[in-house]
Design goal:
The complex is a heterodimer of chains A (638) and B (210).
Chain A: E1 19-22, E2 28-30, H1 36-45, H2 56-73, H3 77-82, H4 96-121, H5 140-179, H6 183-193, E3 195-199, E4 202-206, E5 221-226, E6 243-246, E7 254-262, H7 290-317, E8 325-327, E9 330-333, E10 340-348, H8 352-357, H9 369-387, H10 403-408, H11 415-421, H12 427-454, E11 459-464, E12 473-480, E13 492-497, E14 502-506, E15 511-514, H13 518-541, E16 545-550, E17 554-559, E18 562-567, H14 575-601, H15 605-609, H16 614-630, E19 632-636
Antiparallel strand pairs in A: 1-2, 3-4, 4-5, 5-6, 7-10, 8-9, 9-10, 11-12, 12-13, 13-14, 14-15, 16-17, 17-18, 18-19
Helix pairs in contact in A: 9-12, 12-13, 13-14, 14-16
Chain B: E1 2-7, H1 15-29, E2 32-46, E3 60-66, E4 72-77, E5 82-86, H2 88-95, E6 100-102, E7 108-117, E8 120-129, E9 132-142, H3 148-163, H4 184-200
Antiparallel strand pairs in B: 1-9, 2-3, 2-6, 2-7, 3-4, 4-5, 7-8, 8-9
């Protein structure tokens, strides 16, 4: 810092001579410092030969050695005498230790040299690497786990195998026992399918539908008996069963309901011929025992009997315009005037006698399987109704019957309301309605198909809808002319086929109801054909002439639909020419119409003239001669 | 809703002839015959054993049937509630013999023809008690309406058209409750009152209109 006086620092060297003694008067006697050689000797003595470079252990030993050296370097006898434990003997000259160490080092080096030279020869000594211990397993804990897991899994597998062995043993035992089935196990199997009860010492079963809601008075009980006619000495047959069922005698064999429609009414004398052809038995499931098939067949017979009983009861009770006839096992009714519907119960017993006589082959078209199936469904529907929750009384003390009927008393329903509750249609009426509809539908289809095959131009297409009702079907009919499909789209009819009539809905909204008469439908469709023809022809009339070629005797017009040859003898021009061409065009039109009309009218012109366009036909007739006399030849493109 | 009234027998004529007169009038009017009807009534009174020591008069209970409601049975007290029940009620009454005893010669009924004239239902019947005819009952029902006050005037007009001077006044059933929905029970109450009135008359009636 400026302005402050500098401090005087004096430096003294520390190399002072060691004080040997201090006199009594304060004078100090100094030791002579060591000379260069004395210093070197002192330092040499301090070298520790046992100490390596950079080794800590040896440094500690070296420190010890230093202290001991210092003790020796003092070369004062006083110190040595006090430390009697000092192993180091007072040295004679300072280089003694150095010399000793060097000498020992030399010895060792010589030894090493000798060993190495011997080893190099490899005759008496060789170098071998020291075998190392195996690496300590680092994955020790994981292997242990694996081994323990393996052991435990093996234990579990052992237990499972034991169990499986036992099971297979028991299964094989069962297989063996199957052949020697005993009565009780078979009875158990029977109980799984059928209701059994024990009465006295007999076992009876119930195969009627009473528990499912039927009201048929048949008892439907079968008896289970032990099959004891087995000879133990002989070999047990494959299909041996220790159990047998005995079904009531009137339910033996197999039965089915045959519904058929015949066109012509048979003579009264023919009634009573009972159709009894044996339908092949429905194949039972391969594993089912013989009593199962027997019982199922008997139950089917019972159901068919119930259906037939219900139908015949209704046939007799219900009043209809044409009464139904019930003869033996047939119910005959007439849904349409020329049609006869016959429902018969075909029951064939298993007697050998009847098998011989049943040689008739059933014609497949005769039997309407759909209606038979529907009958089964309807009777089951009726069964379910008796058991439904609507029928079951709530509270339990109320009478049986429809729920609303039970309320009709306390709520004072009058007759109209009560009638609306009760379903008025019986089984027979439903089946007759369905049969009518099926017949009407098939006949409509046949009519349309016959028209389509008979008439080539115009064409008729029918698109039947897949989703139909039991009482109603619908079909969409299109009538088009070839080449004019896009233009004549106006003839599209939707036919709704009901139970007794066909309702036709036109594209322009008109609704026409046709009766079940076949002829009515045919007439109507034919009228539609002609409507389409008229439209097509009108369009055709305006055909453009693409090219004209005039030869000496023949004129040749080429148009879209064909070629016209006109024979002419004189040339004409101007207005006469126009008239001529117009006349030719008109003639061709009529010719086309005539050809088309001829195709499907055939010989019955008179009948249809009432329905169709008279003008059209008359022109046709009028110009027939004109055409031929004029000599127009028209070749239509096909 | 309907009204039940009694038609007095014309002078010098029997019950049957009066009925024939009425029916002819209806047919001329244009009504179509639709079968027959029957309304009957049985009287019960509470048994003496249940009366106790008070000595009060036993209540009268009427059990009625109406062919218009074929599955129902009506049970009513004089000024009390009317019960509409199932036909099993008759069987129940047999079981309750100890509590309700049938009064002697009490069965009274009316039978006749049922006519339908558009929305009107007219029933003309002969009231009989035992073998003897006691009077004529006329019931007119207007189907579409169930509220009394709305159609009473229409009914009155219709009644006047064929009953002439014998048209009744508003039935007592309505009373003050003109706007309440009319039900079959009300019809039965009217019949009950009619039968009671006829029962009180001993001979062939000349009595006035209710």
């Amino acid at each position: 810092m400026s302005g402050v006086r500098a401090v005087r620092i004096s430096i003294e060297s520390a190399c002072e001579k060691q004080v040997q003694e201090v006199g009594l008067d304060g004078t100090e006697t100094y030791l002579q410092p060591l000379s260069m050689s004395q210093n070197l000797a002192r330092l040499a003595q301090r070298i520790d030969f046992s100490q390596g470079s950079g080794s800590e252990e040896e440094e500690a030993a070296g420190a010890e050695g230093d202290a001991q050296d210092w003790a020796g370097a003092g070369s004062s006898a006083d110190q040595d005498d006090e430390e009697g434990l000092v192993k180091f003997q007072p040295s004679l000259w300072p280089w003694d230790s150095v010399r000793n160490n060097l000498r020992s080092a030399l010895t060792e080096m010589c030894v090493l040299y000798d060993v190495l030279s011997i080893v190099r020869d490899k005759k008496f000594m060789t170098l071998d690497p020291v075998s190392q211990d195996a690496l300590p397993p680092k994955q020790n804990p994981q292997t242990l786990q694996l081994i323990s897991k393996k052991k435990s899994l093996a234990g579990a597998a052992q237990i499972l195998l034991k169990g499986a062995e036992r099971l297979t043993k028991s299964v094989t035992e069962n297989q063996e026992n199957k052949l020697q089935r005993d009565f009780n196990s078979e009875l158990l199997r029977l109980r799984q399918h059928w209701k059994l009860r024990k009465v006295g010492d007999k076992i009876l079963g119930d195969l009627s539908y009473r528990s499912a809601g039927s009201l048929f008075p048949h008892h439907g009980t079968f008896e289970v008996i032990k099959n004891t006619d087995i000879d133990l000495d002989k070999k047990i047959p494959e299909d041996y069963c220790p159990l047998d069922v005995q079904i009531p005698s009137d339910l033996e064999g197999s039965a089915y309901i045959k519904v058929s429609i015949q066109k012509q009414a048979p003579d009264i004398g023919d009634l009573g011929t009972v159709n009894l052809f044996k339908r092949p038995l429905p194949k039972s499931k391969p594993g089912s025992p013989h009593w199962q098939t027997k019982l199922e067949a008997a139950q089917n017979v019972l159901l068919c009997k119930e259906i037939f009983a219900q139908l015949s009861r209704e046939a007799v009770q219900i009043k209809s315009q044409i009464p139904h006839i019930v003869v033996k096992n047939q119910i005959i009714s007439q849904p349409f005037p020329s049609l006869q519907l016959s429902i018969s119960l075909c029951h064939s017993s298993n007697d050998k006698k009847s098998q011989k006589s049943a040689t008739e082959k059933p014609s497949p078209e005769d039997h309407l399987y759909v209606l038979e199936h529907n009958l089964h469904l309807l009777i089951r529907e009726f069964h379910k109704q008796t058991l439904s929750s609507i029928m079951m009384p709530h509270p339990a003390s109320a009478p049986f019957g429809h729920k609303r009927m039970r309320l009709s008393g306390p709520q004072a329903f009058d007759k109209n309301e009560i009638n609306s509750l009760q379903s008025s249609e019986g089984l027979l009426e439903k089946i007759i309605k369905q049969a009518k509809h099926i017949f009407l539908r098939s006949r409509t289809a046949a009519t349309i198909d016959s028209l389509a095959s008979r008439i080539e131009d115009p064409q008729i297409q029918a698109h039947w809808s897949n989703i139909n009702d039991v009482y109603e079907s619908s079909v969409k009919v299109l009538i088009t002319s070839q080449g004019y499909e896009q233009i004549c789209k106006s003839i599209q009819l939707q036919l709704n086929i009901g139970v007794e009539q066909i309702r036709v809905v036109h594209r322009d909204g008109r609704v026409i109801t046709l009766s079940h008469q076949e002829q009515e439908l045919q007439d109507f469709l034919l009228s539609q054909f002609v409507m389409d023809l008229k439209v097509a022809v009108r369009l055709w009339f305006s055909f453009p002439v693409t090219s004209v070629k005039i030869f000496q005797k023949v004129m040749f017009y080429k148009i879209a639909n064909g070629v016209i040859f006109v024979d002419h003898s004189k040339k004409c021009s101007g207005i006469k020419w126009k008239v001529e061409t117009l006349f030719i065009k008109w003639s061709c039109l009529c010719l086309h119409l005539a050809l088309a009309s001829y195709d499907f009218f055939q010989n019955s012109f008179q009948i249809f003239s009432r329905n169709f366009d008279l003008k059209c036909l008359q022109i046709n007739y009028k110009h027939k001669e004109a055409i031929t006399s004029k000599g127009v030849l028209f070749l239509k493109n096909n | 809703m309907g009204v039940v009234s009694q038609m007095p027998v014309a002078e010098g004529k029997s019950v049957q002839q009066t009925v024939e007169l009425l029916t002819r009038k209806l047919e001329i009017l244009g009504a179509e015959k639709q079968g027959t009807f029957c309304v009957d009534c049985e009287t019960y009174h509470t048994a003496a054993s249940t009366l106790g020591s008070q000595g009060q008069a036993g209540k009268l209970m009427y059990v009625m049937h109406n062919s218009e409601y074929p599955l129902s049975c009506f049970a009513l007290f004089e000024n009390g509630p009317c019960l509409i029940a199932d036909t099993n009620f008759d069987v129940l009454m047999v079981k309750l013999k100890g509590f309700f005893q049938s009064a002697k010669a009490s069965k009274i009924e009316t039978r006749g023809t049922r006519y339908q004239y558009c929305d009107f239902l007219v029933k003309v019947g002969t009231v009989t008690m035992g073998p003897s005819a006691r009077g004529i009952s006329v019931e007119v029902e207007y189907g579409p309406c169930v509220v009394a006050s709305d159609c009473w005037s229409l009914l009155l007009e219709f009644l006047q058209s064929f009953l002439g001077s014998h048209t009744p006044g508003a039935p007592a059933v309505f009373g003050n409750r003109h706007d309440v929905v009319y039900g079959p029970a009300d019809t039965m109450v009217q019949y009950m009152e009619l039968f009671n009135k006829i029962r009180k008359q001993q001979q062939v009636p000349v009595a006035g209109i209710r």
